[in-house]
Amino acid sequence: MQTATPARKVTRPRADALRNRERIVAAAREMFVEDGPDVPFDEIARRAGVGNATVYRNFPDRDALVREVVCSVMDRTAEAAERALAETGDAFAALERFVHTAADERISALCPMVCSTFDKNHPDLEAARERVERLVEEVMRRAREAGRLRPDVGVGDLLVVVAQLSRPPAGTDCLRGDRFVHRHLQLFLDGLRAPARSVLCGTAVTVEELRRP
Predict the structure, then answer these.
(1) Phi then psi for 149, rounded to 5 degrees?
(2) The pTM is what?
(3) Could you tell me what percentage of the chain is helix, strand and coil, using 3-state DSSP and rounding each to the nearest 5?
């Protein structure tokens, strides 16, 4: 007579462990934006309200934490556009949601870390980046086909301008500059609407051009 093999239990992270990880990532994002990627783990732990050991248990080194912060920001930005598209069916509205969420998430401050602090070809980072790029390309295609988006702009154009407009000018107070970001981004978005009122010089910027060394 054979004895039935008991079903193997799948170990899932406890809810409090997940909350701690989210708090660490949120605190790290804030501090990376304020002070750059070299902020001591002790200070991140203090802001997150957890012990140092909890930070190291979740993120064994700085590269792992920076990568998680950048990936989480890109994921939330993509999700905002996806929700807008699902709720309204309006591709241009989804594009607007993406642009404003990217500014709120401080993508312009975090993206330089991709090139300066760790492996920019890490599979997790590549997956998050490709998800954003595919989504923006699809949203722009649909907005263009609907006659809402001017035909002479590319994904690269959008990413460059969002990064530039959401970064405060040199010598100015970052927090004070935040008051104007969404105003200026909306001016840019209005310039994307069809019909175009001017002819752009050059050709649409592609993602491949942005990645080219």
Answers:
(1) -115, 135
(2) 0.76
(3) 70, 0, 30
Q: Which residues, listed in sequence order, are joined to residue 193 by a DSSP beta bridge?
A: 149
For residue range 193-204, what is the model confidence (pLDDT) as tens digits?
999 888 888 888
20 touches 47 (CB < 8 A)? no
Please choose, from the candidates 81, 178, 180, the residue with its C-alpha nearest in 3D space to the C-alpha of residue 131.
81
208 is written with which tokens? 């491949």
Which amino acid type is present at position 61?
Answer: D
Cα separations in angstroms, 190 against 31, 118, 145, 148, 186: 32, 36, 17, 10, 6
Other beta carbons within 10 angstroms of residue 24's beta carbon come to: 25
Distance, CA of 85 to CA of 137 (rounded, Å): 13
pLDDT at 84: 84
Amino acid at 176: R
pLDDT band at 102 (very low <50, low <70, confident <90, very high): confident
- State the Cα–Cα distance between residues 156 and 153, nearest whole angstrom: 8
